[in-house]
Amino acid sequence: MSIWEAILLGIIQGFTEFLPVSSSGHLVLFEKILNISTPTLTFNVAVHFATLISVCAVFWKDILAILKKPIQKLTLWLIIATIPAAIAGVLFNDLFEGFNDSGVTLGIGFLITACFLIISSKLKPGTMEKENMKWYDALFIGIMQMVAIVPGISRSGSTLTGGLFRKVKKEDAVKFAFLLSIPVILGGFLLETYDAVKAGFENIEILPIFFGMIFAGVSGFFAIKIFVKTVLKGKIQYFAYYVAILGIFCILDQFVFNIVL
Predict the structure, then answer these.
(1) In terms of CB atoms within 10 Å, which of 46, 108, 183, 237 comes out highest?
(2) Residue among 232, 223, 217 nearest 47 (CA)
(3) What pLDDT sits at residue 202?
């Protein structure tokens, strides 16, 4: 992998990890469009670590509050909401990796994301704070996150929609969605680290990994800021238009043009 490819993939990973447009879907699409070889395990470990740092940098106050008082309702809600995606990841990992390799779900996945975002933009603002949720609210949001394992379906978009649907306040729905992303990103990072250790960290390319990390972390930081502002201003539908166009393009390419997918 060249440095420029690493920078490009780092930027794509950073921005799409947190914007409601599906990072997995964009990475699959750009790898196919630009004919970029699949990143090594070591590169994946590095960029996931960088995006983990970026979300912690933005929400450090909320994370610190949880660490200072780990036994609280919010901690329990985050654990409950993490369970569905964790179970699905363990049971159906090979299936989802097949979806990633083929890109077969991209068009439908992007359109589902567009639907989620349109729904979230139409929902009346809720008043419930994240700490006052019930266990079934957290579970519902967790199921929405589980759906987003499919490439093309955005995790941040689906969890935000889940929170707003359960009448959580906009600001708290956004915070919960990003706090919920931490155990998922951390879990992916640990699994990829384990796989990389088993493989012996072969094909380590220091400079591409370094630049990929830097650009993934910085773009991830700004992506979170953009997403939060967009949601609070009630402009989330613009992301819906984008992924809808992308979904239509992918479907047309799959069944008509056969250029990319």
Answers:
(1) 46
(2) 217
(3) 59
